[in-house]
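ENTRY TYPE: paired fold submission
RECORD: A
CONTENT: sequence, then structure tokens
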Amino acid sequence: MQPSNDRVLGVLGGMGPLASAQFMLRLTLLTPATRDQEHIPTILWSDPRVPDRTKGKLSGGDDPLPWLLRGINGLRQAACGAIAIPCNTAHGWFEPMVEAAGVPVLHIVDAAATDLRRLGVGRGTIGLMGTQATLNMRLYQERLSGQGWDCMTPSQDQMDRLVTPSIALVKANRVAEAFAPLAEVVNDLAARGASAVVLGCTEIPLGIQAGPVEALQAPVVDTIDALARASIAWARG
């Protein structure tokens, strides 16, 4: 089904810019279309000035919410019919954003759950990687536990030594350097019994894609792709 012309998708991005650009790329590539007019009308609000979400939650950094609401308001003024946010940690402010949006805001954790089922992982133990704030806020653990999944996370040492530095590498456009440490964590979670690993930070899939998929010992859920698929499902009604 071709998307309706009045179904304009808003994308609240810039967190980080490369993840937003990758979301737009994957949204385009995953859409079953044969010509321009069959693609989804989309408006990207990419504002990298949004204060760091992890620092805002964990260490008294500047509050990102006013900046998030500024973007939501801009997309609302552009008459977007739904909003996708390709940043996992930003979902820690999901409720005030929904209240301000006045239109559906697609939840990235729900999109990841749909992708887990698509992979045939309907319940059981899964691995979860993300920013320290995403894990501490239990954005995934709380939302997925009622649906039959138990989330296993990296150790604090792995977060400090491997995951957090890798996210910083991607944000610094040093994507290839992030693969080895991220793959190490994926494989450790698999060895501990995870049937799949959710890449719950939109920088992490970029690092993982920089290396050979054969090196991974468990299937992964790319939350950029998952959110793109959810956006396509919304657009096609």
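RECORD: B
CONTENT: sequence, then structure tokens
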Amino acid sequence: MKMMLAENIRAFRKERSLTQEQLAQALGVTAGAVYKWEAKMSIPELELIVSMADFFDTSVDVLLGYEMKDNRLEATVKRLREYRRQKDLEGLAEAEKALKKYPHSFQIVSQSAALYSAFGYDSGDKALFHRALELLEQSRLLLSQNEDPQISEQTIYGRIAQTYLGLDETDKAIELWKAHNADGVYSPRIGHILAQNDRVEEAAPFLSEALAKLLSDLVSTIIGYMNVYLKRGDHASAQAILSWGIELFQGLRKADKPNYFDKVCAVFLAALAASQFLSGKRDEARETLIKAKELAAFFDASPSYDESDIRFITRIEGASAHDDLGATAMDGVRNAVSQFDNEAFAALWREIAEEE
């Protein structure tokens, strides 16, 4: 609970242009007493607080600066989240109060754990990490209450591992991440921490898996953004994100050897050409389609779906590349052109495709 009594006594006194001595005389106390109230060195007795409220023509609540908090569960959870966002250490005391009131609430326990862990990293205070661990273990036992699809036993174990890292218990953190690394979700962290601790050979497969997954997700993300922008009629943004993706993926080639992302880039070039064509940049669209054709032919001459042909990535056991772009890169370009359902653009592609 936070009160603003000292600040309010000073504000009300100055509003009435009174000195500390004049207020003291009106209340029948010494000027030193008023000074101590305003300096937060002492608190007036309740009878004097009531007298002051009457003197200043206000209520006791207003004079105290007291605001009734909403202590219902949802409001408390939201408040704990805000303490963490604001990096306000008062949140720790608030968390402990909430834990006493709602000791078996998954939301309260989980948010309190997040608060302690965050402040542990901010301050380096190991005691905060230990408290976070206690709460994370407790939250795992209460997981059946959880309604947040982004939280699961896997993510809680991930947070426990991160907390062990804050306690400098690196091996425990790595082993816990490894044990709960479904779909490679913790591979980036495992690879990063292993490499940081001079375990580079052990780190490399995790980093390769992480990069391969990141690149696959990035392809889907770029296509998603492209569709959003095109449906909004925002061709500039569609062209910008496609161009960025093409530049990024083409930087993954090893020397002059084709890799899977050449096929992806050929399709991206076709989509970029379509956006250029539809926005009136027909000469640019023609040049981009020529590049799409050339890149597709380059890939199809020696197609590679081997992840180890991609720069930075070593062989990943059990990995394989699959897509619905088309059987070949050239098929992918044709499919991309046809999806725009524009006869003039399709005619331009047919003209370019037939050129020697």
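NOTES ON RECORD B: The first helix runs from residue 5 to 15. The chain has three domains: 5-64, 73-180, 206-354.
STATUS: closed
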